[in-house]
Amino acid sequence: MLKCIVVDDEPLAHEVIKSFSEKVQIIDIVSYFNDPTKAVRYIQTNPVDLVFLDIEMAGFTGIELVKTLSDPPMVIFTTAFAGYAVEGFELDAVDYLLKPFSLTRFLKACDRAYDQYITNHHKENKQAKPDHIFVKAEQGRQKLVITEIEYVESKANYVLMVTAEGRLLTRLTMKEAETLLLPYGFLRVHRSFLVCRAHISRYTKKEMQVGSNIIPIGENYMEAVWQKLTTASM
Question: Could you tell me which Pfam families the record lists for this protein (predicted)?
Fold first, then answer.
C-alpha cells in the first residue's frame, strides 16, 4: 500500500481526495497539508511514496515544491489550471488531474502510481516476484502457489485461502493477506473477501463468480470494483 500525503491549500480538495481514497485499496493517505513548506519538511523526514499536489498555492507552487526535493516521491498533480501540464510531466509526474476530476479518473491515476511503484521496486531489488508464498497454518508453514489462489475470505483473526484443490485456514489477518497479495493482481471486493482477478469468470455490480464460488461485492466497494473491472476490460 502506498503511503501518500495531500498538499493543497483548498479544504474542499482535501475532502474530495479523502472521499475518493476511501474507495481505493492501494493507497493510504497519512497526512494532509495546507502549507506546502510544512509538507516539504514532512517529506524530508518521513517515508512518502506518493504526493497528491496542487500547483497554484499561496506563496509556493507545487512545481517549486518538487524542485526543492533532492529525491522527490512520486507526484500526481491536482490543479484547476491545464497550462501547467507540460511542466508537470517534465518533472516526471505520474499523472496530472485537472479539477474537478471524477472518481474514475482518480482511480486511473492511482493505478498508474501503483504500477510505477511496483516497477521501481522490482528494479531496485533486481528480482522477479516469487510464484509462491509460505503461510502459517495449523500444520506449520504451508506453501501456496499464488496463481492457484482463487480468493481469500476473512474468518475473525484468520483468513481462509481457497484454491480449486481445497481450502486452507491460515494464521494471517485480512490486512496482512491484502498487503501480501495486492501486487499479484488481487482485488478487495468486500470487507471479508479478496479475489484474484484472473479467476473472475463473470461479475455484476453486486456479485462475481470466482472459480465455482459466488462472491458478494460489498456496498462500500461496488463503485471502485466496477470501475476497475470495466476499465480493465476495455
Answer: LytTR, Response_reg
Query: What are the structural domain ranges in the chain?
Result: 2-125, 132-232
The domain made up of 2-125 is a member of CATH 3.40.50.2300: yes
* % the chain with pLDDT above 70: 94
Dump the DSSP string for 153-212. EEETTEEEEEETTEEEEES--HHHHHHHHGGGTEEEEETTEEEEGGGEEEE-SSEEEETT
* 142 DSSP assignment: E
pLDDT tier, 157 (very low <50, low <70, confident <90, very high otherwise): confident
Architecture in CATH of 132-232: Beta Barrel (2.40)
Burial of 7: CB neighbours in 10 Å, binned 0-12, 13-18, 19+: buried
Cell 508453514 sits at which residue?
Answer: 141
pLDDT tens-digit readout, 46-89: 999 999 999 988 888 899 999 999 889 999 999 888 777 677 67
Strands 27-33 and 2-7: parallel
Distance separating alpha carbons of residues 78 and 75, to the nearest angstrom: 9
